[in-house]
């Protein structure tokens, strides 16, 4: 059966995003994957006891599937922050044993004072941020419904995090349509399984460094492949590419000075998209579709295979205007039919492609 003969893939009506002037087909920035050498007591204290992420028991099944296919991970921890996650495969071989993106990930909490108490009780160090440093993030704060970041901290393997308090609307989980009360969300079948509700309510953004003179090309790439109108702007440090996702999330690229290298160690981000088939075709036409050897059972050489897995991956990000290679950063691109999508209900919100 060809992909065109299959039942149409679902889409989510991004009315809230459009009402905010966002032209995006990207529905959700769902997880950051960073390998860790081992699952230490420090990792447990940091992610679960201190930050109050919720352990996701589905990880064991996924790890088993990867191992059965010949994958090399020795374990897998999923830490949920509302409807978003951090994936931490354990014990992958070098040079991918420990991963850390060059940048910072935003976290949202209803009560930062309670979080600080939790971190202190768990022995997790953090730094208070000066309030004036956040004025440069005004656009992000306005669109994401966040207060300026109050504290910054780093995971045992170096993942930098900035913590914001939610200011706008109903306190709750960060969904593709905005912040949603967890009780209402649960009634609609929205949510992730976890041992307990997470203290962290969501991941509103990931901010990454990119080489000089690449931000404009990145904007063109997101337009060409993902049908998303990213904004090119000047930030506190230089030129930036801001990619809108859903109603309140951002993927931000920040250029470093000319001549400065940006390391890449194989971490990845996962995004959900409306218009999955078209995104695959555009990525394929640019030669970007990539099979990650860490997942031997997942190949995306044809549209049929990609649709069958409800996902594909790209590694190299190029300027579609001239083919210039900009940066490597693995994107795991998922359709809304992927079984991991946490917003599969209410069905009334899903329309057919
Ligand atoms: Fe992933």
Care to describe what's here?
The structure is a single chain. This protein is an alpha+beta fold and 353 residues long. It is built from 9 helices and 19 strands. Strand 17 (311-318) and strand 18 (325-334) form a beta hairpin. It is globular, with a radius of gyration of 19 Å. The protein binds fe (ii) ion. The site of fe (ii) ion has 6 residues, from strand 2 and strand 16.
Order of helices and strands: EHEHEHEEEHEHEEEEHEHEEEEHHEEE
Q: By CATH's scheme, which homologous superfamily applies?
A: 2,3-Dihydroxybiphenyl 1,2-Dioxygenase, domain 1
How many helices?
9
Largest sheet: 8 strands, mixed
Précis, in short:
With 353 residues, the chain is an alpha+beta fold. Helix content is 22%, strand content 29%. The chain has one domain: 2,3-Dihydroxybiphenyl 1,2-Dioxygenase, domain 1 (Roll).
Provide tags for this entry.
single chain; 353 residues; alpha+beta; 2,3-Dihydroxybiphenyl 1,2-Dioxygenase, domain 1; 8-stranded mixed sheet; 7-stranded mixed sheet; 9 helices; 19 strands; globular; binds fe (ii) ion
């Amino acid at each position: 059966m060809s992909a065109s003969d299959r039942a149409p893939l679902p889409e989510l009506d991004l009315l809230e995003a459009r009402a905010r002037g966002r032209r995006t087909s990207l529905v959700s920035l769902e997880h950051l994957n960073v390998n860790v050498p081992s699952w230490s007591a420090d990792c447990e204290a940091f992610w679960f006891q201190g930050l109050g992420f919720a352990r996701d028991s589905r990880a064991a099944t996924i790890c088993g599937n990867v191992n059965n296919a010949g994958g090399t991970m020795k374990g897998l921890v999923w830490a949920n922050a509302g409807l978003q996650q951090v994936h931490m495969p354990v014990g992958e071989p070098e040079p991918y044993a420990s991963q850390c993106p060059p940048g910072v990930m935003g976290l949202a909490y209803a009560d930062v004072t309670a979080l600080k108490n939790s971190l202190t009780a768990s022995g997790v160090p953090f730094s208070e941020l000066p309030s004036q440093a956040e004025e440069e993030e005004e656009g992000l704060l306005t669109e994401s419904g966040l207060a300026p970041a109050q504290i910054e901290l780093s995971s045992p393997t170096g993942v930098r995090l900035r913590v914001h308090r939610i200011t706008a609307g109903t306190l709750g989980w960060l969904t593709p349509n905005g912040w949603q009360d967890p009780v209402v969300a649960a009634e609609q079948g929205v949510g992730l399984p976890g041992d307990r509700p997470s203290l962290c309510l969501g991941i509103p953004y990931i901010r990454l460094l990119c080489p000089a003179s690449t931000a404009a090309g990145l904007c063109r790439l997101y337009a060409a492949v993902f049908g998303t109108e990213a904004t090119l702007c000047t930030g506190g440090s230089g030129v930036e590419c801001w990619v809108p996702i859903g109603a309140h999330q951002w993927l931000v690229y920040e250029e470093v000075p000319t001549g400065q290298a940006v390391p890449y160690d194989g971490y990845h981000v996962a995004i959900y998209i409306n218009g999955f088939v078209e995104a695959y075709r555009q990525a394929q036409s640019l030669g970007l579709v990539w099979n990650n050897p860490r997942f031997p059972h997942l190949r995306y050489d044809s549209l049929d295979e990609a649709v069958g897995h409800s996902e594909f991956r790209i590694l190299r990000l190029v300027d579609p205007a001239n083919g210039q290679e900009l940066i490597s950063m693995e994107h795991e691109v998922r359709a809304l039919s992927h079984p991991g999508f946490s917003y599969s209900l209410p069905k009334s919100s899903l329309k057919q492609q």
